[in-house]
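ARCHIVE CARD
SHELF: 3
SLOT: left
DATA:
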Amino acid sequence: MPGILKNDTDSRFSRRRLIGSAAALTGSLLVSRTALAQEDDESELIPIQSTELGDIPTTGTVRGGFVGDAPVSSRESTSAQPIALAIEAAGIDAQIEVQQIVDGVMQNPSGPWIVSWYEQTALLGAGGNVVMAGHVDYWNVGPAVFFDLRNLIEGDEVQVFGDGDVAYTYAVETNETYDLEELTSGTITELVGQTEDPKLTLITCGGEFDYASGEYLSRMVVRAGLVE
């Protein structure tokens, strides 16, 4: 089951596991270029490889309260870049960084408390699928920003804030864990490709940790639909 794996001598997180989770968040997925572009022709599927991260996490910290506590302006019709994520049911209040999909490779979030939004996916307010990822745990930190993503159930509220203090509210529709062998090209296109209705997709590691390969054996994917 997903969660903390302890070593044989103490209750600290296993160094190898946490380095592996930092380095292998999206390491077993495949992304189709046309899944992002919504084209009809087939294209080559390229492995999503992780970027190499060192043993020392970034200086990201937990902020004192949910960003939703502050008043925000009404949402306008223009699109916005995501800058913050708040999920009260999972104890998440995080800043969002911009990350890239480079030659089919989803770059990993830069630290334990930061959430990555992939620039090649949808903007807030533009329709389509807004795709984000975060670490489940992290070396020298323990549980990271998406550790409690597993607790989300249908109907839980997710707030995403765009530049200009524009708030977008989503409601969780599904929370699924996929074993790596289940992540076929068709499944991955369905998860990270564009959608007709405005959706938010949150991805993190899940399942058991494989010490031989240095990565988790599953991926957890939360899909939410825009409410307002």
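SLOT: right
DATA:
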Amino acid sequence: MVPKLLTPEQKESRTNICADIVNNIDTDPSLLDTVMTRFESVEAVKAKATEVLNQLTEADFQHCFQQWKSRMERCRDRQGEQSKAIKLLL
């Protein structure tokens, strides 16, 4: 992974995109309906998420925790410089 800092133009673009998304969420109450393509309703999503989460084992959670810890250590070791992989998680 190569550390990469955003240029001012990239920062502005990302900020504008995020602002547009937040504005759409705030002004379009039916936005969630257009995003929901695989499930019939929010309740269906919640039911499926609960089903999947209940199937996870302790080992699954331990694995996720170790991956998270590893990413945080890389961030610390780079003194806060973001990498492409870490940006994807934000």
